[in-house]
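Protocol step 4 of 6.
Sequence for Carbohydrate ABC transporter ATP-binding protein (CUT1 family) (Martelella mediterranea) entered exactly as in the expression construct, tag removed. Do not edit the line below.
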Amino acid sequence: MARLQLKSIRKSFDGNDILKGISIDVKDGEFLSLVGESGCGKSTLLRIISGLEVPDSGEILIDDRPVTSEAPKARNIAMVFQDYALYPHMTVAENMAMPLIMARLPLHARLPLAGRFSPAARRARPDISDKVRAVAAQLRIEHLMERRPGQLSGGQRQRVALGRALVRDPGIFLMDEPLSNLDAKLRVEVRKEITELHAASGLTFVYVTHDQTEAMTMSDRVALLQKGTLLQVGAPGQLYADPANIEVARFIGSPEINFLPVEAASDMMRLGNQHLPLRLSGRTGGFTFGLRPEAIHPAGFAAAPASADTIRLSFRRTLVEDLGHELLIHGAFAALPETDVRVRLQKSHGRPLDLPESFDTLIAPEDLLVFDEFGKRIQQKPLPVRQGVVA
Ligand SMILES: Nc1ncnc2c1ncn2[C@@H]1O[C@H](COP(=O)(O)OP(=O)(O)OP(=O)(O)O)[C@@H](O)[C@H]1O
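Step 5 output, structure tokens:
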């Protein structure tokens, strides 16, 4: 276990700023995910933590000890890559033992083949096998120990790669998109296994993924990067319900959040051609509402939101996707026909729903997220205006 602090990490390649001052404090034993779109700098940051890459400026501390200029080996960090990087000619047991064998060999014997057949490697092996067996049991791969990587499924290979990283008893475990080569069903399985592994090992995990669902389901906290900048770091529920800006709201949540342009006057708001009995305390002008698909309640088909001040908007559907337990309805509000909107509707016991083409929807003002013209979240919620009386 170890605490990891990143302080103002900067890195550029060929004059392009890839990381623009990233500061994150990863707690001892925490599972932190780094998420963001392809090219935002996630892997570069992970490589900098591991020591494979050197930052242009900034500092890395492990348990309060500066390690920025230390070699990877001295950091007691293990890393699992998306392509597993197993030795194809070695058995699972040999693959898993290799980091321990290598650590005990003199430098000249560390080449994979030389290391494998050298007398020093053979001497080191007996006391290593107990450790390998223990980790294999933890990962439930004992029955695979004599196979070679080519004789394993993707999920099994992934477990071997995890095992190989774990045998060294690292303080920090780094993973770079470890599930991306697995099919969807297996991804969910291994996702659960990694979460269990984290809980059982108590290690500090830093996990890179571009898949927000993966990050949300596995992590204690999620750090969202965009173009080399840290947009927000927080618990999954916090990023979902309390995003700092439009980019975070857009990236987190599937299906994606809806955005609606609105104009605020002192005593009402306007959405397209409809007046809404809402106002923003002391603020007028152009804003954007963020509205999660499950916060739009089709009247008569879903329970009304528990709010005394729901607003009612007519909706016209264009496409309905039946996901079995729920419907994902695409369409637009009549007040704003040019803006696509997604609505999630739970089905009662999977029964089919006969949705008309147009129906009313109910929305609780408390469920509206408000963003200013720069995309920054405004913490205040829209206030109801009742029959011309400002509440
Ligand atoms: N050694 C390097 N030399 C030059 N450019 C690099 C180098 N490593 C990374 N880059 C560039 O830095 C940017 C960020 O790369 P990085 O791999 O960190 O992104 P990422 O967020 O992990 O993306 P992905 O999800 O696609 O792996 C990319 O534009 C990449 O081309």
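Step 6, annotate. The first strand starts at residue 4 and ends at 13.
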